Predict the structure.
Amino acid sequence: MSPDLVIIGAGPAGMTAARIAAEGGLRVVLLDEQDRAGGQIYRNLGAAAGRDWLGPDYARGADLLRGLNHPGITHQPRATVWRVDAARGVIWSRDGESHVTAAPHVLIATGAQERPVPFPGWTLPGVMPAGAAQILMKQSGMVAQDAILAGAGPLLYLVAAQMIAAGSPPKALVETGTDLRHALAKLPRALPAAMTLAKGLGLIRRIHGIPRHHGARDFRAVALAGGRIGFGFTTRKGPQELDCGLLLTHLGVIPQTHLTRSMGLTHDYDVAQQAWRPRLDAWGGSSRRGVRVAGDGGGIGGADAARAQGALAALAILHDAGRLDLDERDRRARPLRRALARALSLRPFLDAAYPVPKAFLAPPDDTIICRCEEVTAGAVREAAACGAHGLRLMRTALRTGMGPCQGRMCEPTVTGLIAQTTGCAPSALGPGRIRTPVKPVTLAEIAALGRQPEETA
Amino acid sequence: MNAASHFRDAPGMAPRSIRMSLDGETLLARPGETVAAALLAQSGDATRRTPVTGAGRTAFCMMGVCFDCLVTIDGRPNVQACMTPARDGMVIRRQIGARRLGDQP
């Protein structure tokens, strides 16, 4: 029996929407890449009992996992969606075999990825995103040791606090510098999220005692003997040299838009978050009828915002499906909109407090910016100066974005470098064209699907 | 090479009871964890060499985005170790350079 709704992504937005839609009488298929539901924020929560050191916010996802226990919800784990076809539905892969699930309604809740933090040496084994270290804590109970945290943003403080609670404190916290003067002007608007702010301050208090460096720039990592990392940077006090087993970097997260872009949905450039996001209405509706987006994949708002957006999208879908009248939809939406506004009130402050330093959008010439094809920033600058003024021209010239990650790790940097060289605004340079399959699948797998998906892009 | 792991197990974690092999040597994993986590728990070394310059890489993003954790598992090349749950008996090989069509099982 074909479902009424396909949800892509089992994080807070997708799980919330699945439960509400199923309770409203819809048959829901929930596709998710991971082995267990939860998304990155609640990753492995169902099997991480006893890990109190991960903190109370992690445990808050438990109700969402319980909510998936509903006869109307079919959760398909380890399902990698590689195409959403206007005519045929959602095409996904598991263990080398592809499947098609068609439904009149599609909700895309693919969440965020970490913003790439490129600098010379970031490709060395021993350098990782801080979020990756957090995934290892959640999924494997593995804690980084002899580690330095570097970059900016609340996640750095959270990972530091979790490492301390697990008995493996970081050696140092190296911050790129917070523009607090600019951020303070946004603080009054963040007051509805005072609880979240207080939690953040509590986190910063808990990392008391960890050596901290502020205003750090000119990151550089080199391989030392025994697989250790030498980490150089500059502060107002001059050049600094530290060494560590693991260098964990972070500069915030950006929406995962490969799927929504591959579908040709309208996207806008979010200047504050320095990333592309699909254009959505108040119910998560995209520029294509029947396709909605909720959660961080539609713009970074965090887990609480994702819950509210998932619920709003589910109500709209129930209404579209004739299961919920307009008054009831709007009545149930009112508290959700308040919760959403409260959750989002913090973003302008965070965006202002933890801006992405320009040097990471346009890093030094000797930085590998495309990890797959090993293209340097210098090569991109040279190509841009020679006329490669767009993402597609750069792709043709240097293969940036043509490796297996399909530009996920380099596009923000390629955009930043072209913008710097040509003087164009990033918003004028994209969004880059994304083609399906948005995750690599073999030709054999596509052939075995029995029908060739048509290319509409 | 032979870099020690940069991770340690948090107190109270279950032992690594799943037995796999990495280039002929034993690789242990805990139930529920990914091949990439098992690789990082074992060593800080590179788990592949890039096709372009031969540079060493290992698992990076841990969430299926970056493809730096590609390994060959049970003869199947270019598998994302961070997206693959560890299972008993898995035969894992580091990838040195690009895979060729002839390498396919």
